Amino acid sequence: MPPQGLAKFSRAKRRVLPLLVLLDASGSMNEVIDEEGMQRTGQIVIEDGQQWEVVTGGTTKLQLTNIAMKSMIASFAAVERAEVQVSVITFGGAYDAKIHVPMKAASEVVWDDYAADGETPMGSAFKIAKQIVEARDAIPSDAYRPTIVLVSDGLPTDNGWEERLDELVSDGRSRKAARMALGIGEADRKMLTRFLGDEHSEFLFKADQATEIVRFFNFLTMSVAKRSNSIDPNEVIKPKLVPSDIDEF
Predict the structure, then answer these.
(1) Minimal CA–CA distance to 119: which of 147, 153, 85, 89?
(2) Structural domain includes residue 38
């Protein structure tokens, strides 16, 4: 019998499935979308170029988005076949656009709620998103097809956003990314359609009620989770294939 030895065991490295989420952090995201428990104060303020009445109670668009992001990232941490990596960019008038979460494994993300203030510097977010997707130290060459998600309730307010959007969707590695968009309330549908392009036009979602925001993030969670365990994780789940019980996902 030949002598037996030991060989170091190495676990196969999982391929990365990147998700990049661009979140509106303008002042209008503080608008109450679920009025249960809301009380009016009569105090008027100006936010994001609009007049608002200060209220107490209720649930805002921002609060729902923070809750949904935390839940979604926690779900991705349990994915086994592919490693879901997440990066989050927020864009608001108080600080322009910034990386809220750098690209990292979902299991390593500790979600900190983001705040909303000021206007909607979306062009700056497009620029940062482009830089992340093109950087091979952030998204390796053998990664599965990235998904870029835009969530907004308004219009871009910074100069040059059109050029930065065109660069994101029409040039380099970023043009090959899958794209989805959620327009909340009075979001600029024309801009969102331009972000998606013809190839991704069916991935435009609209939310006028709190339940519709929740439903979108449930779909996004399901879509990425199913891709990570599918035969071809580069193929994106179509909205028309959403199960009827998506609200309980």
Answers:
(1) 153
(2) yes
